Structures are given as C-alpha cells and as structure tokens.
Amino acid sequence: MIDLEFVINTLSLGSLYALLALGLVLVYGILKLVNFAYGEYIMIAGYAIYLSATLLHAPWYLTLLIAVLAAVLVSYLTELIAFRPVRSQSPNALIVTSFAVSVFLQNVVLIMVSPRARPVQLPFFFSRTIEIAGATVPLRNLLVIAVTAVLLVALSLLMKKTVVGMAMRAAADKFTTTRLMGVPANLVISTAFVISGLLAGVASIFWVSRSASVDPLTGAAPLLIAFIAVVTGGMHSTVGAVVGGFVYGLVFNLLSVTLPASMISYRDAFMFALVVVFLLFRPAGIIKRGYTEERVG
Amino acid sequence: MMDKITAFIRKHQTVVLLAVPLVLAGVLISMFGSRLLLDIYTYFCVSLGMVYGLQVFMGNSGILSWTHVGFVGIGAYVTGILVTPPMVKEMGVPNMYPALVDLSLPVVPSILIGALVAAAIAALIGYPLMRLNDFASVITLFATLIVIHVVMTQWDNVTNGPRTFFGLPQWTTWGIALGGALLMLLAAYWFRESGLGLKLRATRDDRYAAAAIGIDMIFTRYLGFVLSALMAGFVGGLWALYITSFSPKSFYMAEMFLLLSMLVIGGSGSVSGATVGAVVVTIAREVLRQVEATINNAHVLSFEVFGLTELVMAVLMVMVLIWRPSGVVGGQELRLPRFGKKKDVPAEVDGLAA
Amino acid sequence: MAMLTVENLEASYGAVRALHGISIEVAEGELVALLGVNGVGKSTTLKSIMGVLRPVKGTITFEGQEITNRSPEKIVKRGISLVPEGREIFGTLTVEENLRLGAYVGFKRDRYKADLEEMFELFPILKDRFHQAGGLLSGGEQQMLAIARALMGHPKLIMLDEPSLGLSPAMTDQIFQLIVTLKERGSTILLVEQNAERALEIVDRAYLLANGQIEHAGTAEEIKRKVDVASVYFGDQTDADSCEVSL
User: Fold this and answer.
1) Which DSSP string do the residues of B25-65 spell out, in sequence order?
2) How many whole angstroms separate alpha carbon B15 and alpha carbon B183?
C-alpha cells in the first residue's frame, strides 16, 4: 500500500507536523520553555476562523488571515503577561506557568463561546480532490506541502540573513551573552513567540480542516504531536524539529496501514512507546547538537 | 526519658504541627459540621494523600511528575476490580475477562494490591525514564500519562473503556480518609528527611555536586518515583472507595492540574507546602464553585459560566509563580519559631530555596 | 573624574554574600586590574557592573551617570563591553556573525566595514576563519574573537574577565601583548586576572581582592613591592577567614 498516494499523504502529514514542531522548538531553543499553551494558540486560531465566519461574515481569505493574526496575538500576549515575569525562575516554573496559561485559555473559550464543538468553514477548494498520476489526493494536502515549503524557506532566510534571526540563533546558543551584545532580550523573545504564533496559526488552518470543527480541547492533540516531534527530531535545532515532524508523520502513517484493525485504537500508545524506546537509546534525538544547554535568567 | 521524647517531638514538630489541626478539623466537622462539609473534608483528605505522593517525587527531585494521576487511576481500577462483587461487575463491565469477574477480595488487601500494582508498573517503566534530560523527561512523562490514559480508555475488558466503572461500596469514611492522609503524611515526611530523600534533594539542587559526592542520581530518582507511585496507588484505592464510580477521565489533565496547583501554590519543597497548598486550593475551589453556581442561578449573565474555577486557579498559580515561586510555605518545613535562650543546636543544613 | 566608579558594592548569590563592599575606580585611558585567587569576587564585580547580577548594595557610576541595576543591554549602549569569562563565543554562529552581533549597538554599515578591516589587522586569524563556526576555533582564537567582538561595539570601557584562562603560555603572551596594544591605542581597560604576576607587568594600577573585599590597592609597582603575591596564592594567609569557602 506504499504508493504515490501514501507518499503524498505522508508528505502532507509530515509537513503539518513539521510546522507544529517548528513553532514549539523556536521558543524552546531560546527560553528553554516547553510551552504547554502552544496547543491553545492553535485552538484559538480555529475559533477565530469560526467566529470571523459566523459573526463577521468575512470571506474565506480574511478568516484565514484573522486566524493567523489571532494566534500571533495570543502568543505575543501570553509571553508578555505570563512568561516574561516568570522568565528568571526555574524551567519547571516556566513549564507549570505554560500549563496554567493553557488551562486559562481553554476555560476562557469554554466560558465565552461554548464547551461544545463548533463547525469551521474552510475554503471550498480545500476539500477538492486532484488526480496525480493515478493517485487521488485532496487539494489541501498539496497546499500544506506548498505552504510549509514556503514557510521553511522564509524562516531559513530570516534566521540566516537577518540580524534578528542571527540574534535569535545567538540567544538559543547563549542567552545572557546575547544581552551582552546589547541585543534586547525582550525583542528576541517576543519575536520568537510571534513566529511561533504564526506557525501555530497556519498549522491550525490545516489541522482544523481535517475535522471541520473546533472545540476547547482541539489544541491537545497537535501539542502532543509537536512535543513528540521535537523530542525525537532533536530539541536543540530547528532542523531537528522539522525532521522529527516528518519522521513522526511517516511512522504514524506506517502504523495506520500496518496495525491490525483491533489494535488501531492503541496506535497512539504504540507511537509513544516507540518514542520512549527511541529516546532511551538516543536521548538527544535524531539531530544532535554539540553544545550544552544554558538556562535563562 | 521525657527529655528524649520532647527532643524527638521537637525535631519532628512539623508532623505534629500538620497532623493535629488535621485531626481536630475532622473531629469538629464530624460532630458539628453539615453533611456537605464532611464530604468536602473527606474529599480533601483523599486529595491530600494524593498531593503527598506527588510531593515525594516531584518536590524532592524537581521533576514534574505528570504520571502521578495515572498511578492513582491504576490503584483505583485495581481496587475496583478486586472489591466490586462479581455480579455487579458482570452487569457493569460486560466485556470483562471472566477471571477478573470472579475475583473478589476484602477491601484492605485490595487497596494494598492496587498500590503494589501501581508501584510495579512504575518499577517496570521508571528506570529508563529517569535517565532523560529535563526537556525529554517532561515530554516523556507527559506521554506516559497519555499512554496510561489511552490504555484505560481502550481496554474494555478491564476498565470498561471510556465508560463509567461503578459498583464499589463506599468504604472510605472521613476517619479512614483522614487515616490515609496521615499515613501518607508520615511517609512523605519520612522520605524527605531520610538519607534517600536528602540525596534526591541534592540531585535537585545541584546535580553535578551530587554526582561528585557519589550520589547515583538515576537510582535515587527511581526509588523516589516508585515510592511515589506506591502512594498514588494506595490513595487511588481509597479514593475509588469513596467516590464509588469513576472513568478514565478522572485520571487525566484536569486532575493533574488540580494536584499540581496544590503543590505549586503551597510549595513543592516540603510536606508542609503540600498541606498548605491542598488547604488553600480546596477552600478556593469551594468558594469559586459557590460563586459559579450563584452566577448561573441568578442568570446575571446571558451565558453559563462553567470553568470559572479552573480559570481562577490558573491565574492564582501564575501569580504564585511570579511573586512567590517556592510557594506559600517556601522550601522548608514549618516549625515553631524559637523562643527563649538559643541552645547550641547544630544549624540545620537544608538546601537553598526550593 | 574617573570614568568608572564603583562604591561599596555588595553582591550575593542566593544566600551567599560574595562581595562585602568593593570600591574601585578606573580613569580614562587606564589599564586597571582586579587580582585575586579563584572565587574571591572578581568576576562578580564585573557582572555587577555589567548588569548581569543585581547588587544588594552600592552604586556604580559611569561617566557621571549612575548605572546600578540597569539591564545589560542598556549598559552596553552606554559604552561598556564585557569579554566574559570562558569567552562565551556563539559556537553555532560563524566568526562573521559573532562580529556582526558585537557591532549591534549603533551599527553603521560603512563604519562596520572599516571596523572589520581593523579587526583583521589586529587578529589576522579571524580573517582566515571568517566563515567558520565559532565553535571550531581553538581556545586562543576564541579569546581573540571574543575580544574583537567586544571591540566592534566601540566601547569606551572594555572589561576582560580572565582572558588567559585555559590558554597556553604562548597564547597568554599574545593576549597580554594585545591588551597592551589596545591600551596604547587609547582604550580604557578593566582586567580581571588570576595570573597576577603577568598582569602586574602590564597594568597601571591594580586592586587585590580577598574574600569579597579589597585588601590592597595601588599602582602596579606598589602592589609588587608591598605584597608578596605568591604568598597570597600559596597560603601564607592562614587565618580562619581566608579558609572560607566562597563561591
């Protein structure tokens, strides 16, 4: 069953997962923060599509734009309000804070919108299918591959060619020393969160399009995927995150086609078990990095 | 002889300082309090037991112990399966393995077996987990919780899947809950003050220095992890016998967040912190629940506010982390301030703020 | 008026008091050293000046303006650069990128090009390794990169934290020679060194620290005469105080 359709679908799934992983690792690299609220950026973007479509009756391109902007805004604000004051504390404190922020956001949405799932309208062409060399592929799968490619290139250019990108890479390497260069710490961190939100917003569009609905817990699954992808791919580099995303997508699809029907519901358990076993042999992930971690503060 | 006893009590005054109000509260509430208040107290005692178990590992090792509620759940399910009469199991869990259906044991052994099963599972999977670095261990423990949850939700034949498992007798009275909490208090305190606990705290405060003096970090963590799971399983059994019916949902994120908030707000570094945190959070939640109900019943707002409690707890947690990161209590155990002449007591060599 | 004035600086790491009231001065164009054994508070002083550490008490004044408790980014803008202990090169960035970041404050493109040329003159090795990752450089090369990086920002005051640490004697010679060159070009330098003998050969003045306090201060000559420097290191000061284990 490994045919062109499988390859394209795996590439598209891998692309989506790579986006998810990338948004998470950007913040982790600099702040050493495992951001549990990241899933909620995705969830809120999904709700933004829903609300802008139903309340504002916005055309599809606007709803998608609003979704991405919403994710960026929430990401930026959570850093400003919750993470910045806790930044000088231990990594544990940061993680617990992100967990609290996640709970907060989930409940805000629960209270202000509804605990029940809401339908999300995606552009009509998302569900169109296309024939390529005998394979039938949903258009959105091709779209996600294209969008991811564009974003990856743009992000690489940003990181390699601009001073901001340089500063972010430096901050991920040695945070305090970056400040000694006169680079404002807050700028670097806010930028990372903004980009993280951007990636979350874009990923959310494709994520939500698979179920065409959103509820307060929508963010949990992509968060977990991002976690696992980053950890297996290598938490010290953006390349690692992307690789992790694709590998995760591949393993996921492989398990889906090879597991007997009775075990399919245990697929997630299998995945995590595989990940745990992998980590025991290679704790640094697939892509290793030579330097040790430094803490912020 | 009296001197020895007073010295002993003075040395371990924390236990006394915590246990006495706990017992007093229970006695007073059982005599004069309403039924509702007694329920809240009983539930509080059980939560307290859970938090103590969490403190044992997380407080002393500094590792976020996501799996804790999973082990509570394992204890609960094992106890449930062993205690519930076969007839009820046949009805309630239609797909259960016949061997399990026939199994029936008295309450106390069931709880103990539940604890042992949880500890055994922790022992099985725990050692490699302790080797992981900070980021990986956070994610992996988190993933392990999810694995446990998935298994609970899917394994129809044992847990009744995502549906409710019911039929347990309500064996846990306020007294038993209190007893369990006190037992857990003693265990957590003993562990913290023991050589093992001290070693573990050393690895938390400075892992390189700890390694330099010969502490086997992985093994120390491992023992703490297993003990923590044992305690979790035990309390899980008690809890199951109080609530009489539950589902995998009860042992997942929401519960974990609750326990985490108790420990963080109170202060994860000490047993006193765990206690204070549990008290604060329980009171806060009850108050918020009332507020929520009042708002909803008065139809002040056009929509219903469910989740206000969680929201406020989240904000409280972040506020504590910003302004008092080692919790209300801070890292040390509660002691009475010293009055009068200072005797030549050797300084307590306790670590810096947790 | 001195360019940098530190008055009664007290600093702690958690519950441990590292500095018990340090007062030092650096005038424009001077090359001043902070000397002392390991753990005595030299790096702590530099970090406090730089804003990386928050002092408990005391004031730090630079060019007449108080800079106590300011953030590192602001202090860099004022014109102080720190070459940190251990070099702290961005290992995953290239030499070029390290230098570019050094020039972050007040960056001007034409001046940047001229500055790079100057750096290549002072440190020819950097030109050869311009596009290599910083982590691939040797210890000595990294030290040079760290100094060059600090210079790119045209600082008014350069602080060097243990530049000879971990370097071979030949490399140490080169570094010290470099510091002299910098001084001759008019830079104001505050140098922290464990290698007191070598430092005293090149500096104008020095402060000798012990246990978080200044034990001796004066010109290089005075210190050399007054203090048997070797004994400070090898334990003629055997009172209980100096046995204290400080951070």
Assistant:
1) HHHHHHHHS-HHHHHHHHHHHHHHHHHHHHIIIIIHH----
2) 11
Pick C4-243's CATH classification: 3.90.1150.10, 3.40.50.300, 3.40.50.720, 3.30.1490.20.
3.40.50.300
Task: Look at B132 and A91 and tell me if their CB atoms are within 8 Å.
Answer: no
Chain B partners of C15 at a C-beta cutoff of 8 Å?
352
Using the 8-state DSSP alphabet, how is residue B351 labeled? P
**CA–CA dist A106, C13 (Å, integer):** 39
Element at A136 (helix H, strand E): strand A135-138
ipTM above 0.90, yes or no: no
What are the extents of the domains in chain A?
18-218
Cβ separation of A173 and C82 shorter than 8 Å?
A: no
Buried b (16+ CB within 10 A) or exposed e, A267-297: ebbbbbeebbebbeeebebbbebeeeeeebe
For the entire predicted model, the pTM comes to 0.86
If one counts every other C-beta atom within 10 angstroms of the C-beta of residue C7, the result is 15
Cα→Cα distances C40→A2, C194, C233, Å:
66, 10, 12
pLDDT in tens, chain C (247 residues): 788 989 888 888 877 888 888 899 999 999 999 988 887 888 889 999 998 888 888 999 999 899 998 889 999 999 999 999 888 999 989 999 999 999 998 888 889 999 999 889 888 888 888 999 988 998 889 999 999 999 998 899 999 999 988 888 888 888 899 999 999 988 899 999 888 888 888 999 999 888 888 888 888 888 877 766 565 555 444 444 444 444 4
End-to-end CA distance of chain A: 51
Annotate C83-145 with three-state secondary structure: ECCCCCCCCCCEHHHHHHHHCCCCCCHHHHHHHHHHHHHHCHHHHHCCCCEHHHCCHHHHHHH
First to last CA, chain B: 36
Instruction: Tell which residue, C154, C178, C156, has the closest CA to residue C29.
Output: C156
Nearest-angstrom CA–CA distance, B199 and A213: 50
Read off the amino acid at residue B220: T
Q: Considering only CB atoms, which residues of chain A are within 8 Å of chain C?
A: 163, 166-167, 169-170, 172-174, 176-185, 289-291
Annotated domain spans of chain C: 4-243
User: Which tokens sit at A51?
Assistant: 């609300």
Q: How many angstroms separate the CA of residue C136 from the nearest CA in chain B? A: 26
A114 CB-near residues (< 8 Å, 6+ apart)? none
For strands C188-193 and C157-161, give the pairing. parallel
Q: Pull the structure tokens for residue B108.
A: 């106390």
Residue C22 three-state SS = strand
Contacts A182 to C, Cβ<8 Å: 72-73, 76-77, 104-105, 153
CB C39, CB C247: distance < 8 Å: yes
Report d(CA A168, CA B301) in Å as an integer: 45
Interface test with B, best of A79, A107, A116, A265 (most B CBs within 10 A): A107
Phi, psi of A101, deg, nearest 5: -60, -40
B143 Cβ under 8 Å from any chain A Cβ: yes
B353 touches chain C (CB under 8 A): yes
Cα angle: C50, vertex C51, C57; to 5 degrees: 110
Integer CA distances (angstroms), A129 to A2, A15, A142, in order: 19, 18, 10
Can you tell me which residue has the tokens 């106390």? Answer: B108
Contact (CB, 8 A) for B269 and B54? no
Whether residue A93 and residue B133 make contact (CB cut-off 8 A), yes or no, is no
Closest CB to B307 among A100, A110, A272: A110
Report CA torsion sign: B323, B327, B330, B334: positive
Can you state the angle between helices A38-54 and A60-78, rounded to 10 degrees? 140
